[in-house]
From TrEMBL:
Keywords, alphabetical: Cytoplasm, Differentiation, Meiosis, Oogenesis, Repeat, RNA-binding, Spermatogenesis
Organism field: Anas platyrhynchos platyrhynchos
Any one GO CC term of the record: cytoplasm
Domain RRM: 61-139, 141-223, 236-308
Gene: RBM46
Domain of life: Eukaryota
Protein localization: Cytoplasm
Official protein name in the record: Probable RNA-binding protein 46
UniProt xrefs under InterPro entries: HnRNP_R/Q_splicing_fac, Nucleotide-bd_a/b_plait_sf, RBD_domain_sf, RBM46_DSR, RBM46_RRM1, RBM46_RRM2, RBM46_RRM3, RRM_dom
Xref: Pfam families: DND1_DSRM, RRM_1
Length: 472
């Protein structure tokens, strides 16, 4: 281990020299028997631990830790995280200065230990007034590829991606809602590992790479929120996609009741997907097996168990604002990207008061300013080249969301009325032209606002909640 000409403070506020830091880390290694190596901007403790035999722990055993004090190191962190179970590997991200970068990845030997770490250490006060964030870490193996010609079939896209990148496992392509013979203009490419996906992204990301003469868009796909097995065992709702726009809720209910009459409680259809609620879980599971791949009104449907989401937590966790195609509300979760964490870990009360009513608001972006030094080079960019975490308003999120789906931008129509005390009250109606049809052609809040900004923000929030089950 190399010395750094820096000093750090310990939990008591006393300055600790680099020599003392190294002594503390050596003492930790001697006590535990774990090895430690620093490379590529991170310091690995363990991986594997002493006496470990067999393959590394499976997916789901690693947690992400954010908001770590920059002068805190493994000698303090490891004992805290050992409270949840045996650590397989602890990876602390490091700066050249010798300070940590504020986050780490902790892999346990079992999923139960990782879940316990999240339960007991998320929002843990690690130092007076300093709270860390802990959540599940996902090794993302999937890329989002946009601007794909809509006439291309799955096999054509798969073959092309295998030609230009390595480690391709599968390609996920969704049919167009209005024309099932075409795709939606994007695909998800699954790779054999996070590394393979990262290498592919690095090759394709410059923005000049073309497929079939088209400049494609490349980004990390949003991994679906993982739901614990115990919760999934209680699910009795099916998510049905690839329906015809003309297919009605009554038709869906009748089709799913065919294999066993009277088992469907209700159906909620939105655009070309639906949620089918059953009275009993056993019937839901049986129906999923029977109905997956069946044709309804000429469309071959896909049927999976719907992942339950706590709607009260919508917008309240400051992770990336990502959307799962099998969830009834917005999701948020972090993902790992070349050793960087995409979320900012700023916990806050995210409800805003609009016209006397509390409404969910987008996560607050951690704002700060930097000096504009003479000679600073500026590069023109499009807002769509940014991550969704750069946007703090629902209006911007909705515009970004439509762009990512290759949709026409949303249209806002303003209406007003006068309150009993003479105030002008405002409300926006939002039309998303790319999905407009029948009774689902627009979205309008049931609350009026006193300011234009609040009215537009509230309308965008409502629209995002209704659009949640769509892919990115």
């Amino acid at each position: 281990m190399h010395e750094e000409n820096t000093a750090a403070t310990n939990g008591c506020g006393k300055t600790r020299s680099s020599t003392q830091n190294e002594a503390a880390l050596l003492a930790l290694m001697e006590k535990t028997g774990y090895s430690m190596v620093q490379e590529n901007g991170q310091r690995k403790f363990g991986g594997p631990p002493p006496g470990w035999e067999g393959p590394p722990p499976p997916r789901g055993c690693e947690v992400f830790v954010g908001k770590i004090p920059r002068d805190m190191y493994e000698d303090e962190l490891v004992p805290i995280f050992e409270r949840a179970g045996k650590i397989y590997e602890f990876r602390l991200m490091m700066e050249f200065s010798g300070e940590n970068r504020g986050y780490a990845f902790v892999m346990y030997t079992a999923k139960e230990e990782a879940q316990l770490a999240i339960k007991i250490l998320n929002n843990y006060e690690i130092r007076p007034g300093k709270f860390i964030g802990v959540c599940v870490s996902l090794d993302n193996c999937r890329l989002f590829i946009g601007a794909i010609p809509k006439e291309k079939k799955k096999q054509e896209i798969l073959n092309e991606m295998k030609k230009v990148t390595e480690g391709v496992v599968d390609v996920i392509v969704y049919p167009n809602a209005t024309d099932k013979t075409k795709n939606r203009g994007f695909a998800f490419v699954e790779y054999e590992s996070h590394r393979a996906a990262a290498m592919a992204r690095r090759r394709l990301i410059p923005g000049t790479f073309q497929l079939w003469g088209h400049t494609i868009q490349v980004d990390w796909a949003d991994p679906e929120k993982e739901v614990d097995e115990e919760t999934m065992q209680r699910v009795k709702v099916l998510y049905v996609r690839n329906l015809m726009l003309s297919t009605t809720e009554d038709t869906i209910k009748a089709e799913f009741n065919k294999f066993k009459p009277g088992v469907v409680e209700r159906v909620k259809k939105l655009r070309d997907y639906a949620f089918v609620h059953f009275f009993n879980r056993e019937d839901a599971v049986a129906a999923m097996s029977v109905m997956n791949g069946r044709c309804i009104d000429g469309a071959s449907i896909e049927v999976t168990l719907a992942k339950p989401i706590n709607k009260e937590s919508t917008w309240k966790q400051h992770f990336n604002d990502q959307i799962s195609p099998s969830s009834e509300s917005l999701l948020g979760f972090p993902s790992k990207e070349d050793g960087h964490q995409k979320s900012a870990w700023k916990q806050a009360n995210l409800s805003v008061r609009l016209n006397g009513q509390h409404s969910p608001s987008p996560p607050e972006v951690e704002r700060c300013t930097y000096p504009f030094l003479p000679g600073t080079k500026l590069t023109p960019i499009s807002m769509y080249s940014l991550k969704s975490s750069h946007f703090s308003s629902a209006v911007m999120h909705l515009d970004y969301f439509c762009y990512k789906n290759n949709w026409v931008p949303p249209e806002y129509y303003l209406y007003s009325t006068t309150s009993q005390d003479g105030k002008i009250l405002l409300v926006y109606k939002v039309l998303v032209p790319s999905i407009a049809y029948g009774s689902q052609s627009y979205f309008m809040p049931d609350k009026l606002c006193t300011t234009l900004e609040d009215a537009k923000e509230l309308a965008a929030q409502l629209t995002l909640l209704h659009l949640a089950p769509f892919p990115r």
